[in-house]
């Protein structure tokens, strides 16, 4: 059984205000080419198909156009799609009846029977090789769970285990109980590598949504996960894998490797082999400087060396750029200077991060309100500057501040205050 595993497309995402439709189309073209060349039996899309619960018409068109091309390129292909935390469970499942006619199985909402009990059987999907209809394995396809999706009082780990235990019991009483089992789901597995800062997965503060990697069950031969954007095998779980995001979702992810996972399951032994298939995104992420922060003059020098825009270049491959500037004193004209420089450069500007040396050791001592009231505006300005930049205010800035204070005093005098 040959499975291609992908996740976290985030169709419709904008990156610091920049539209990414061309990038997503580029990825889906890569995925279609990979399907045509590899001819898998099944494709797993493990959640976060869309970036928001209300995707644009353009984002939905990308998705359904891809599904059409995928099933045309690989006759008999079975597609399993589970909703992620960014997706609208009901919206992504709305065309499920129609998609099922094309061997596309979408699981977004959590169904219950007339007695209010979970319909576990709906999420147990027998899969066959694409060349015949005899089931050779079973997929436990579970969408992203929210607290309302499992009994009250359960933790995220207990809720997931409740559902996976129910799926396993249902499978044990079915005609497919002897087949190897795989899973397709969307959750945060303990042991997964996540960026400590600026992670974009919407993880719950305090790790309350972090669950054991093997929560899907020890008998599961391969767990295809979405949610974490770094492609990786979770060390604490047996064959628990994240396919990673299609595109980098923050500058902290600029060094991630992207692609899809090719998994081959031996139906007799239940053993699996996993291969990473690399993908190079259309646009890269660029930080200036590449490490740490630079002085304003160093930043401007690096920006000056960037390639210029070519006359016939449509800009589709321009990298996204962030600037990290070491700010030892206010630089009110820096943003203007940067904007002028970048007007002719083949990049997409995203943000400027101002780094203040020693800011983590800024003074925290406090004084009484009466003491602060007796300070002149200039004395207060000196204190604020020293606390922020750990150095005396330069004379030119002191002069500019004096002019501003004088102008304000004159205005108050004219108003009779």
Layout of secondary structure:
Layout lengths: L1 E5 L7 E2 L2 E2 L1 H18 L3 E5 L10 H17 L4 E5 L6 H5 L2 H5 L3 E4 L16 E5 L6 E7 L14 H17 L8 E6 L1 E2 L20 E2 L8 E7 L5 E2 L6 E3 L15 E8 L6 E8 L5 E4 L7 H9 L15 E7 L7 H9 L5 E8 L13 H5 L3 H13 L5 H20 L3
Parallel strand pairs: 1-4, 4-5, 5-6, 8-9, 9-12, 10-11, 12-14, 17-18, 18-19
Antiparallel strand pairs: 1-15, 2-3, 7-8, 13-14, 15-16
Task: Write a structural description.
Helices cover 28% and strands 22% of the residues. It is built from 10 helices and 19 strands. It has helices at 21-38, 57-73, 89-93, 96-100, 156-172, 296-304, 334-342, 369-373, 377-389, 395-414, and strands spanning 2-6, 14-15, 18-19, 42-46, 78-82, 104-107, 124-128, 135-141, 181-186, 188-189, 210-211, 220-226, 232-233, 240-242, 258-265, 272-279, 285-288, 320-326, 348-355. A 6-stranded mixed sheet has the order 6-5-4-1-15-16. A 6-stranded mixed sheet has the order 7-8-9-12-14-13. The longest helix is centred in the C-terminal third of the chain and has 20 residues, at 395-414. Residues 361-368 have low confidence and may be disordered.
């Amino acid at each position: 059984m040959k499975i291609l595993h992908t996740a976290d497309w985030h169709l419709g995402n904008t990156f610091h205000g920049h539209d990414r439709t061309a990038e997503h189309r580029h990825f889906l073209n890569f995925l279609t080419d990979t399907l045509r060349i590899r001819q898998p039996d099944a494709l797993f899309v493990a959640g976060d198909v869309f970036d928001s619960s209300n995707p644009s018409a353009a984002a939905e068109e990308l998705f359904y156009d891809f599904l059409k091309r995928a099933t045309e390129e690989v006759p008999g292909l079975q597609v399993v799609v589970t909703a992620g935390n960014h997706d609208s469970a009901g919206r992504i499942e709305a065309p499920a009846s129609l998609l099922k006619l094309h061997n596309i199985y979408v699981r977004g909402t959590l169904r219950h029977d007339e007695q209010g009990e979970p319909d576990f059987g709906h999420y147990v999907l027998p899969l066959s090789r694409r060349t015949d209809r005899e089931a050779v394995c079973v997929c436990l396809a579970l969408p992203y769970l929210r607290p309302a999706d499992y009994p009250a009082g359960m933790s995220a780990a207990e809720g997931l285990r409740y559902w996976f235990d129910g799926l396993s019991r249902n499978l044990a009483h079915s005609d497919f109980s002897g087949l190897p089992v795989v899973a397709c789901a969307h959750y945060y597995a303990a042991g997964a590598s996540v960026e400590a800062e600026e992670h974009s997965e919407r993880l719950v503060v305090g790790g309350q949504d972090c669950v054991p990697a093997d929560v899907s069950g020890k008998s599961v031969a391969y767990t295809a996960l979405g949610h974490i954007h770094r492609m990786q095998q979770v060390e604490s779980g047996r064959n628990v894998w994240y396919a990673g995001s299609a595109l980098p979702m923050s500058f902290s992810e600029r060094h991630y490797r992207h692609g899809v996972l090719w998994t081959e399951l031996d139906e007799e032994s239940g053993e699996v082999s996993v291969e990473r298939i690399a993908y190079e995104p259309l646009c890269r992420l660029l930080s200036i400087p590449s490490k740490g922060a630079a002085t304003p003059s160093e930043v401007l020098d690096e920006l000056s060396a960037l390639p210029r825009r070519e006359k016939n270049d449509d800009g589709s491959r321009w990298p996204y750029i962030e600037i990290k500037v070491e700010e030892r004193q206010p630089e009110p004209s820096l943003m203007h200077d940067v904007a002028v420089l970048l007007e002719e450069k083949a990049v997409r500007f995203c943000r400027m991060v101002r780094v203040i040396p020693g800011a983590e050791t800024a003074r925290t001592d406090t004084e009484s309100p009466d003491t602060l009231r007796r300070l002149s505006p200039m004395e207060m300005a000196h204190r604020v500057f020293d606390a922020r930049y750990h150095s005396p205010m330069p004379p030119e800035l002191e002069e500019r501040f004096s002019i501003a204070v004088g102008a304000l005093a004159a205005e108050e005098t004219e108003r009779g205050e």
